[in-house]
């Protein structure tokens, strides 16, 4: 990271020195260390990377208990979002007895089971680092097997030959 009077400079942005001299956007990339030092530019290592979802800074973890609550809620929200496209079928079945397909029921149950497993795993963590490792893993991000719905132009076909077009 390049600094001029304690302020960071972007390697691809034009800048002006305190004496008013203007430099083009490519100057930092093309200049030598001696040329940069001559106008007061220093170079320091970039700050260490950290995941801001879990840490306040490098090596400064956020409160584990609060993060668990947050990620449990996020998992429930994701599950609800995945269930929402077929919620109308649940309502229709309760309202007039027209059954949703067994496949849709199975898909909805897989989503609920996946969410339950993820919440159990989140609650089983004991440290922020452990929680971060789980949340950033494929085990958390993978909600499959959730089959992609086949395009039906808004009409759902059931195994008995009926369609959802006739509510």
Question: What is the number of domains?
Answer: 2
Give the spatial strand order of the biggest sheet. Answer: 2-1-5
Based on CA inertia axes, which overall geometry fits?
A: elongated
Overall structural class, as computed from helix and strand content, comes to mainly alpha
- Overall helicity: 40-55%
Distance between the termini: 63 Å
Low-confidence stretches: 146-151, 157-163
- The secondary-structure element order is EEEEHHEEEHHHHH
Radius of gyration: 27 Å
Instruction: Kindly state the number of beta strands.
Output: 7
Largest sheet: 3 strands, antiparallel
Strand percentage lies at 5-15%
Helix run count = 7
Mean pLDDT: 89
Brief overview:
By secondary structure, the protein is mainly α. It has seven helices and seven strands, in the order ββββααβββααααα. The chain starts with a strand and ends in a 26-residue tail after the last helix.
Describe the model.
With 167 residues, the chain is mainly alpha-helical. The chain folds into two domains: 42 residues, no CATH class; 105 residues, no CATH class. The protein has seven helices and seven strands, in the order ββββααβββααααα. A three-stranded antiparallel beta sheet has the order 2-1-5. Strand 6 and strand 7 form a beta hairpin. Helix 3 runs antiparallel to helix 5. The longest helix is centred in the last third of the chain and has 23 residues. About 8% of the residues have low confidence.
């Amino acid at each position: 990271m390049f600094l001029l009077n304690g302020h960071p400079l972007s390697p691809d942005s034009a800048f002006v020195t305190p004496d008013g001299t203007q430099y083009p956007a490519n100057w930092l990339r093309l200049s030598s260390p001696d040329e940069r030092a001559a106008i007061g530019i220093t170079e320091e290592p970039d700050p260490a990377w950290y995941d801001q979802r879990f840490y306040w800074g490098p090596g400064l973890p956020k409160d584990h208990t609060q993060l668990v609550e947050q990620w449990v809620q996020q998992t429930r929200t994701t599950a609800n979002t995945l269930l929402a496209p077929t919620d109308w079928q649940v309502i229709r079945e309760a309202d007039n007895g027209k059954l949703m397909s067994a496949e849709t029921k199975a898909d909805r149950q897989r989503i609920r089971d996946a969410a339950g497993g993820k919440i159990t795993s989140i609650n089983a963590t004991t440290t922020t680092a452990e929680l971060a490792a789980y949340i950033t893993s494929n085990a958390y991000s993978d909600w499959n097997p959730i089959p992609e719905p086949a395009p039906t132009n808004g009409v759902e076909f059931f195994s008995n030959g009926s369609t959802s077009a006739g509510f």
